[in-house]
Design brief:
5-stranded mixed beta sheet; disordered C terminus; 7-stranded mixed beta sheet; about 35% strand; 7 helices
Length: about 230
């Protein structure tokens, strides 16, 4: 991401999730979105997405054909290991339907807590707090790191090691992730971005899209229609 693009981003990047994509067992991804025009063709990378906002897009990873995705996505992931930080959050899908929003941000604290703020309220059905803030320590937001946030457990791993674990599970059962989430009434959001995004005190928030927001931003809330892909 160029410095000019970075400086033009809002303090809080908001990603709205359409209600039909909020369900237990679902895995979603927020990543960088690029659009270029080459020889009169509009190229979008990724070519398919649900929503896009300020250079980032929301993807339903389960809508991709695993037979066509595995090899190319693994190659891209190997390259991305050294470029991005991954934040993976397992949470009840119902929390978004109940009106909660989830904000990821940096905290400068270097105490023993891996994350701070009120992330426990994400798993508390009786909590009336609607704005969930997950503050991640500055030293954890490094390239090649994966931070996994689950109920009662926060872990830090090297992205390449985490991917090896996931590939092992998928080799035994390609629906292992979905089955795990469904059986625990959870869904998963992965945020894969350059760590500089957070180091410049910017945040990412995701929440359920309401009808008023969708109507007001209709020109910008669209599914990608481009099927054009390029070979890097």
């Amino acid at each position: 991401m160029s410095s000019s693009t970075q400086s033009s981003l809002p303090t809080n990047i908001l990603i709205n999730i359409p209600p039909e994509f909020i369900e237990n067992g679902k895995t979603l991804l927020i990543e960088k979105h690029d659009e270029v025009f080459v020889d009169g063709y509009h190229l979008s990378k990724p070519s398919h997405f649900i929503r896009q906002s300020h250079g980032f897009c929301l993807i339903d990873t389960q809508q991709q054909d695993p037979r066509s995705v595995n090899h190319s996505h693994q190659l891209e992931s190997t390259i991305d290991d050294i470029q991005f930080v991954q934040i993976i959050i397992e949470f009840p899908g119902q929390s978004l339907n109940d009106g909660k929003s989830i904000t990821i941000e940096k905290v400068d604290s270097i105490n023993e807590e891996k994350v701070s703020e009120n992330y426990e309220d994400l798993y508390n059905d009786h909590s009336d707090k609607k704005e969930i803030h997950i503050g991640i320590r500055n030293d954890y937001l490094q390239r090649g790191n994966t931070i996994i946030i689950e109920k009662g457990n926060i872990s830090l791993k090297q992205t390449k090691d985490y991917q090896k674990e996931q590939l092992h599970h998928l080799s035994n059962n390609q629906f292992a992730k979905r089955d795990h989430l469904q059986s625990n009434d959870l869904m998963e959001m992965t945020i894969e971005v350059p760590p500089e995004l957070f180091l410049k005190d910017q945040m990412i928030t995701f929440k359920r899209e309401d009808s008023e927001t969708k109507a007001a931003d209709f020109p910008y809330h669209r599914h990608s229609k481009s099927d054009i892909t390029t070979n890097d």
